[in-house]
């Protein structure tokens, strides 16, 4: 039982929300894909495994057509281009889907800001129609948050009854045959993680407080599985036990390999940020490309030309690049003509680089004196301007 705290007037995908979950944001695509492929699906799945992959990776710009025999659900078009959401390896997404189809736990590991959480939301929305059965792992996460708690008013009035039981998102997913998500699992204490070991092997949760043998067990319905994420950089409060690791298939989500793909993603998301604000998008492609290039050089410790770059300790993630691009686009929209947008880039880069260790500012300066200077000397106008802005970094 989850409590719905939306106001009466809020529509499910209405503009009165800052962020809509993927099942609302992409409701049309999900309904379309459910009608598009009538092939066999694993128990409780809304879509076939193949269309789950199509939902995440998009239809390559091609319009998909509903087969003649399929009725289009209300409000759903007969042809649709499915938008690409996750930029990355299709084979990785296929493996994730196969893991879930086999009802095994899926663990997405990787550096911060590589879209692990986004991928887990998209997969669960596509498989079971909700990404909302989620527990956020922290050092303060308790076993109750993974299993069940009690409504104390009812508990006092009625004693331990089924009505007084407050299921965790994981228990709800078990009884519905849905996908539960556990974010940042390695931040949970070992004894809390251990609760998942028995849950994932026995596929049931005992509720000893309830009277009556079998009745006191909650069994997992077919289709139940779990997607967890873990951040390599944070290392977490605790390592996962070998027993827990064995119950998951691991997939490592890496940074985006291709410069053009990363630039296109950053442009799309910055565009979306200003469109939400109702303002025009006025950032040149050359600026976005310089921004993404700088992020990639500093992330990889090597420039595209093969020059050595000293890496700062901060992770220069795509997620950070998206947020810097969004800020540049908003600055251009709200303060048009005040300043050249490119002139804002060094300051933003400095802000990101200095997050972990203030000493990293010197590394950024080193990048300027190396790669940025050399590109300026080679005649690139954008990099020439950036080189001229070097003093911003010295303050
Ligand atoms: N490969 C990618 N495909 C699509 N979007 C991406 C990709 N990598 C990063 N992003 C962007 O980064 C944002 C943040 O991703 P998300 O929060 O899911 O990362 P995360 O890996 O869970 O990070 P953390 O480890 O900090 O929790 C996404 O919403 C998206 O805008
Ligand atoms: Mg995350």
Automatic annotation (TrEMBL):
* Superkingdom of the organism of origin: Bacteria
* One Pfam family of this chain: AAA_5
Polar residues bias spans: 1-12
Q: List, for all copies, the residue spans of the domain called ATPase dynein-related AAA.
A: 105-248
Which InterPro entries does this chain map to? ATPase_dyneun-rel_AAA (IPR011704), CbbQ/NirQ/NorQ/GpvN (IPR050764), P-loop_NTPase (IPR027417)
Q: Where is this region: Disordered?
A: 1-24
Protein name per Swiss-Prot or TrEMBL:
AAA family ATPase
- Originating species: Streptomyces fildesensis
The root-end lineage is: Bacteria, Bacillati, Actinomycetota, Actinomycetes, Kitasatosporales
